[in-house]
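## Example pair
The file below holds two records. Each record gives the amino-acid sequence first, followed by its structure token line.
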Amino acid sequence: MEETFTALRDKPCKEPAKASAEKTVQTVKGRNCQVCSPKITEGMRDFVDLFTRKIEETVSQFEFELNF
């Protein structure tokens, strides 16, 4: 999660969260745990859906003035 939060500081949108979740899924599946491997994809998908929704809600509250 620390890596995800660092990436979100640089790019506050859903892409870093989704990339981090995919990395987590691959790491867990790579461990070949008979309990975790079958559940990780669905669990992370649900978590990322909620997490990215909250990211987008939070970011949408900011107003920026760009003066060029």
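Second record, same layout:
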Amino acid sequence: MHLAQCRIRRTNRSLLVCCDKVREGLVLCSEGVDLVVKEPTGLQIQDFRDKMNGKSEFVVRHKGVHRFCFTNRSPYHETLDFDVHETHFSYYDQHAEDEHFKPLLEQISKLQEALHNIQFEQHFIEADSERQATVNIQMSWRAIHKAIYESAAVIGASILQVYLLKRLFARKVWVLRV
């Protein structure tokens, strides 16, 4: 941000929480960034001077588009991270109304349904994993038995080959002597 920039945000009557942080470059400067907040009527609500980092809260009195204008008083280019969060209650002693609970209850029911679906999927995956483990154990026993049988067959074939080769060479030697 070089000199001045403005951002707009449509808000309802509520509490606004602004968080801003100036990312400092290679040169540290004592001068910060000014933030001016204006209502849709053009009336200035807040004026924060020489801010480097911070969180600001203020109550919005009129619905509509609010302007958040920043002015960089530093001679250097600054990068600014800025976020606006809108909440429904400006003070903790205010009581919630039915219109505040209805969306919450709808979201809770959606979350309950999603949680139920996730639990069902987990149960299915656990059962499938158990079945796969049983199959793997059975397959490993089958593979071990098959390997033992194949090894025994190879050993038997080798013994038979040795016997037949000895018998063959014994006959050839006897035929050559006669």
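Notes on the second record: DSSP finds one helix and seven strands in the chain. Residues 111 and 117 are 10 Å apart (CA to CA).
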